[in-house]
Amino acid sequence: MSVRVRYAPSPTGHLHIGNARTALFNYLFAKKHQGAFIIRIEDTDVKRNVETGIDNQLSLLKWLGIDWDESIDREGEYGPYRQLERLALYQDYAQQLLDRGLAYKCYCSSEALEAEREALKAKGDDKLHYSRKCLHAPDQDAPHTIRFKVPDDVAYTFDDVVKGSVTFQSEAVGDWVILKRNGIPTYNFACAVDDHHMAISHVLRGEDHITNTPRQLMIFDAFNWERPQYGHMTLIVNEHGKKLSKRDETIIQFIEQYKNLGFLPEALFNFIALLGFSPQSKEEVLSREAIINLFDENRLSSSPATFDKDKLAFINNRHLKSKSLTAIMALCLPYLKAENIAQHEDTSYIESLVGVFQDRLVYGAQIVDLYHDFFDEAFELDQEALDFLHSDEGIVALLKHVRDAIKETDTFDADTLKHIIKSSGKATGMKGKMLFMPVRIAVSAKQHGPDLPKMMHLLGKDRLIDRINATLNAIA
How do beta strands 236-237 and 164-169 pair? Predict the structure, then answer.
């Protein structure tokens, strides 16, 4: 059997981290088994559909590095790929179930159904199932839904890729609506029909869909169709172990937000792939190609996947470090321009700016905060710094030589400053730690930090001279 898997978003919102994981795992599964990955648009919830929902999802999946074999923009032999374009198919199958006595028309109003549910609640009934009031009702020319007649005393068992054997009893499910009054199918009915007609071999989705599975199996069995194999991935939880909620503002949850902040798509691909999957590798920072090669559905976790913000930051930072300085400059520049930072500076200054923060940078937009922190931080020498500056008589001469050379130079860039430091060391007999550490302290008040010449270039000539003079006064 050829492998065919699908990601089936509804256009009711933009691409969420959980949906992106579902798409990614289906994509990886298809890649591993040389199968096909299909994107089917489940747009039957017309009241909640968002105009830009599908375009947003598809463009962001491509940005992440996830591609597909069939969809609305890549027609295959199993289309159309929008459910609203398949209404006649669902209506035909609903009629077949009616004709066979496996479904019936329900004429109950929404008010009557609500009253029935409230009455069951009042009695303390824990199964708020439809009473089958319309099961034998005579045919009427009146608005109606079509309900599936759930078989009595049937166990629906399936072998879940993640959870193993799972069983639902039919009595846990009341007769459910398969076709609404407007002729539009409900989710579970359309899903089962489409999975069959699109020859879907495996259904990999989130754990919150597991209770939908028995209803879909009922449709497969009613038509004697071959069932797909199901796999339900565990929930994504926050650091407190609570299910990830779109109302949880402590976690950024939409892919577009990460893109806008300047996260790298390959890093997000990497991070999402580890949400519920443990590759047979000690390394967590992995390329897209490595993840595809390592993917194994048997290593999908049966425990909830924790959204670890620190791990995401670490992975994105590591991917950034593998980039060239030119690439990181291109990533950061739009954020600097948006804040009117370094608008009139030359390329060498921007290079120094990005080079200074490259190791600390987690995402592109962070360059603005790092810039402000760097320039807004007060220049104050602590006692440890002062003690070091008093540790060698040659330090005063060194700092004066560096200061005077900076004053005299007409070329002010990182390479020139590097030359000034080295020539000052030769002139004063200072070298190694006793050369670079005093200069670093004198310009930054810190004993450790980023590339010294680039940092000095970033500070500017006037600020460097002022700080060295302040340091010399402090140790006089």
Answer: unpaired
